[in-house]
Structures are given as C-alpha cells and as structure tokens.
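REQUEST ID: PR-0412
SUBMITTED BY: lab tech R.K.
PRIORITY: routine
TASK: structure prediction, single protein chain
INPUT:
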Amino acid sequence: MVQIGGFLGNSLRPARRFFRVGVWAEGAPGGLFWFAPWLCWALLSSGCGPSFEAEPGALGLPLADRDVLETGRQTGRWPGWRGTNGSGVAPGGRPPIRFSQRHGYRWRIPVPGRGNSSPVIWDQHVLLTSALEEADPPQLALLCFDRRDGRLRWQATVELLKSRTHPKNGYASATVATDGVRIFAFFGASGLACFDFKGRVLWEADLGPVDHQWGTASSPVLFDQSVIQLCDAAEDSSLVAYHMASGRLLWRTPRPSHGCWTTPVLVELEEGRQELVVNGGAEGENGQRMVVAYDPSEGSQLWQVRGTSDLVIPTVLVGNGLVYSLSGRNGPILAIRPGGRGDVTQTHVVWSYRRGGPYIPSGVVYRNRLYVVTDAGHLTSYNAGDGAVIWRHRLRGPFTASLIAADGRIYAANERGTVYVVAAADQFKLLAENALDEPCLATPAMADGELFIRTEGHLYCFPGPREAVAAGPGPSRLLRGS
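STATUS: complete
OUTPUT:
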C-alpha cells in the first residue's frame, strides 16, 4: 500500500523521539551501540543525483539514462520505490525466469519484524525497513544487507510511534530512497529520517500527527538537492520538501485531500522543465478527485485532471510522452499529456477508460505497452499510445504487489507468493509460474539481472540464468551454468 500523514510544526523533530538511534553493526564489539544525540548540518557532496527511468524516448528520462537503456549497460542500482522514478523498469541484465522457495536463489535470509516495503539496491547494499513491534519498546528498523551473500551489515532503529493502521498495511510499507550517500526513510507518525550508509541518523523531520484509519505508505522522492514527501492523511494533508543534506524545510504545500497512498513521480518536459505528479487524492469542485502536478522546486500547483477514484494507491506511470493514472477497484484509467496550467481535463486527456483500474497494484509502461493487473488478477496489455486493448488474461490472485519489467518480460507477484513471468509480447504467453509458498505483498526489485523478493518472513536474491542455487540441509550451494 502507499500513503502518508499530515504535516505540522517545524522541520526538526524533538530530540527525544529520534536522536536515540540504535545501530547494530556486524563485527562491532558487543554488536549494539547507542549513538549520542547529534545532528549533521554539513553539506555532503554526493555526485549521485536523482535518476529517472522509462522506455527510450519517454518523457522524464534524462540523457544519461537513455544511454543506459539504448546501450544495455547495467546500473546495478534500484534506488527507490519501483526503481528509478517509480517506473518499475530495470535496465540491463537477464533476470531469472524460473525459481522457487527452494531452488534458483543465490541467498535467502529471514527478515526480522514485519513490513511491506520493497528492497532498494545500491551497489552492494540491499536496504529494507521493518517494524519490530515485539521489541521493548517497539521500534522501526532500517536494515542493510550485503548484496553478495545476504548477511545483515547493520540495523538502525528508531522509536515506533503508533497510529491507526490497517492489519494488511502495518508500520513499514514505505520504501526508502537513496542517492548513494544518504538514505531517506518515511516512518509515518515517527516522521522522515535521513541516514548515512553506516546506519547513523543525519537528521530527522517531524511531520506532525499522522492519522488515517488505513495507515501510511507513500515513499520519498528525490529531486535536485531535496527530498519530497507526500503527507496525505484524514486531515491536514500536505506535500513537503526538505534539503537533502541539512534537513531544512524548503516548502510545504497544503492539499485538500482526505487520504492518498501513492508515491509522486517526476516528469521532465521537452523544454527541460520538470513536474511532480501525484495520482489523485486532492478534492476539486463538487468533491472530485484529481491527478495533480506541482513544481518540485517550490511546491506550487501547476495543473490538475479530474476523474480519479477515492483513496488512490497506484503510482502514476510515465512513458511515450504521457502520464498514466490508474485508480480504484475497477476504477478509471487516464492517459494524460503533461504540461499546461489549471484544469486541463478537457484538453490533456488523450484516452481513458471508466473501468479497468486496480485498487492497489501499480502497472508498468514497457515497450509501448501499458500493463495493468487488478487486485483480482486480471492482467491487461494496452497500446500505450491510443489505449487499444492488446490482450487480457486472468491470473490467480489476489494481487497487492506492483508489476515490474525487464528483458522483455513482466513480473507479477500475487499475495500467496506466486510470481508469474509473462512475455512482454502482443500475444499472452506465460513463461513461468514460480511458487515461493509464503505471503508476498511487497513489490519485487531488480538490478543487474538479479531479482530481489521480500515475502512475509524472508528476503530472496535470485540471480540470472548464469547462476542458480540448490537448497539443501546445509548452506546454499551455488551452481553455475544453469
């Protein structure tokens, strides 16, 4: 799921809540240290700005990433929710087609606590959040695993400030974002925190009382030198931006919204200007819900399109010069031309359907096709340019995890832990049906042809076809050439 809560107060949280951060580091004497209160205000030079990804020629794709896709070079990174810019598309690599709970993995490790956030991969780091509700006191954890063997490198914990949530959601559904120097994690009522790659807190922001009956889940978005967080709740919803290095509040824009669990997406227009698009949640005239675009540098509202459903969860998709909005239980699908000012419902909707949208899973735009899976398992391929239906097929659901795509394939994980691999082609072709035999609500991640899947209790790394792993009574054994 995907959401946030309201913002109140200053950008800096009272020290008593966040400054006592426990960091467990492998090899450290005693294993656990408590860092004294501190706040890092120094500007850290990353050299790794935010990146954006879609298909070649799509809006929202800087030239550097176009080169990656066109030449097939591999980035080795999946830096936030659904990779780069929420696209769900992995550049380069040959991910596996067939795998299971016992075969095909490089490693499988238990994950402490509970959470639905997705893995984030940066070089040899795999990042994940989890709620340790059984701890005394209850805590939220940022976990860092070694990509090579799955070992837990460190664990940073913060205080779990409980608020209302849904049993299916919990307290750790937002996926972290990273620029390779800092890691940004949204923890609902416990606020927004910035960590370094040793698990130390650099700064934290108090987002105020976050309250919604279904909890929170919207993930941070990185833009230029800012981190942007959608804070929709039952009351006092807003969109906020903080300076990456210092945690200083840059801007706050109120939103007339009573609940939205999506993650914003950046769109780059031809003239180089960028827009931050939020899929639904804000109420217009007569209570109509809208897709809304903001200026990411200052937070001002640019344009809106009416027609989404209530309580929107899926992330908007960017490709082929369009923005695609999916929402609702069998709700609307809108293909929108970005740009413009004010209400552009009548002028910028290129094609639409009143029905067919999912309630929770985000789709994917891949190779001029829009792939959508509903909660019940209806998988549909649309022509992304004109909305024509290419094919439809029913998979066994239900589905909460979003779709991802790579190497000519679509990956769809249902709640029972079955991962379907479907050919990205103009005729439906099921390539594999892989059973992990454990509940799965988190969206998979992919980098350099490696597939990372979080189930209810474990984190898997499935390598590409050159490597496979056979499970046995002892340590996992690496088999090559399979």
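NOTES: The helical segments are 15-18, 63-71, 345-348.
REVIEWED BY: pending
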